[in-house]
Amino acid sequence: MATRYWAVSLPVARGSSASALWSRLQESISKNAFDTPLYRFNIPNLRVGTLDSLLALSDDLLKSNNFIEGVSQKIRRQIEDLERVSGVMSSSLTVDGVPVDSYLTRFVWDEAKYPTMSPLREIVDGIHVQIAKIEDDLKVRVAEYSNVRSQLNAINRKQAGSLAVRDLSNLVKPQDIITSEHLTTLLAVVPKYSQKDWLSGYEGLTSYVVPRSSKKLHEDNEYALYTVTLFKRDADNFRNKARERDFQIREFEYNPETQETRKQELEKLAQDQETLKSSLLQWCYTSYGEVFSSWMHFCAVRVFTESILRYGLPPSFLSVVLSPSVKSEKKVRSILEGLCDNLNSAYWKNEEDGGGMGGFAVDADAYPYVSFTINLI
């Protein structure tokens, strides 16, 4: 699939026709740049309005195009991210089931959605409002999904970190903890290289430690987790003495109900993440099609507006889309320029140094015909 197209319009000379110019263009491209896909870009006769309204609209077209293209790329990137984290193979993006490149190269104006008798400004503003609403909706949906994902990632980080910081609830069993009127069990995080020191010295840290009560529950790359049972009244003193020997006593209270609640919360978050991810991906597929369709109608308005301002009235031009390879670009530009043989286009050729574009919204490079780039990616 080509990812970059030129939208171009060429002036039809007096006494000729768009069909005759199309034949000449096809012949020139096939002879001199045969690797360049070329298609008619069928634009209906739109409502012209006044020259002032066209000039005012032209001033806004480039800015509006950048906005619409930007939203299109945002949704495409979101789709790529979601497909990657879901392990889904990248699918061809479509507009109502039609691949986007085919939608462009076989473009048909949607009269029901954009009546051709509507003022051009009304069509452009309607598209802008629609795309802005989709962008706002995207932000809300992504924020909702990202919030749940962040919560789940935070929990997973706690469970995956070192024993000094991770959640210990899934490492400690009920039988590991002794709690009575006088006794309590503490959890000590001991550096791996200090385990011998712990085992030989924990009983002597204070006077009220139950002998041989320490048991190793878990070990990671940095630390080992031990239990120790002692009299409750001595717990604070033991914490202080342990800290002096670089043994960390973790605050932990075993509660079966809390453990079950945490487990359910984790399962619900994981389920919510999958639901939101699937919903967001489907919404992105649909919304990308809507944005792309609106964008192509906007491009048609842009070609029409610039062509009227460039070539004058009545509308008499050939609009096409083509996708030359990098090595063929100069050749194709030369072919297009050679077909601009009316007086208006000659004026544009001779104004390279004088800023002869008249302030019209075109790409940075000025040509003696209307031309701008459509980047699908």
UniProtKB/TrEMBL annotation:
Keywords: Hydrogen ion transport, Ion transport, Transport
Coiled coil stretches, renumbered: none
GO molecular function: proton-transporting ATPase activity, rotational mechanism
GO CC annotation: vacuolar proton-transporting V-type ATPase, V1 domain
Pfam families found in the cross-reference section: V-ATPase_C (PF03223)
Subunit description: V-ATPase is a heteromultimeric enzyme composed of a peripheral catalytic V1 complex (components A to H) attached to an integral membrane V0 proton pore complex.
Family membership: Belongs to the V-ATPase C subunit family.
Described purpose of this protein according to its UniProt entry: Subunit of the V1 complex of vacuolar(H+)-ATPase (V-ATPase), a multisubunit enzyme composed of a peripheral complex (V1) that hydrolyzes ATP and a membrane integral complex (V0) that translocates protons. V-ATPase is responsible for acidifying and maintaining the pH of intracellular compartments and in some cell types, is targeted to the plasma membrane, where it is responsible for acidifying the extracellular environment. Subunit C is necessary for the assembly of the catalytic sector of the enzyme and is likely to have a specific function in its catalytic activity. Subunit of the peripheral V1 complex of vacuolar ATPase. Subunit C is necessary for the assembly of the catalytic sector of the enzyme and is likely to have a specific function in its catalytic activity. V-ATPase is responsible for acidifying a variety of intracellular compartments in eukaryotic cells.
Stated name of the protein: V-type proton ATPase subunit C
Species this chain originates from: Fraxinus pennsylvanica
Upper taxonomic lineage: Eukaryota, Viridiplantae, Streptophyta, Embryophyta, Tracheophyta
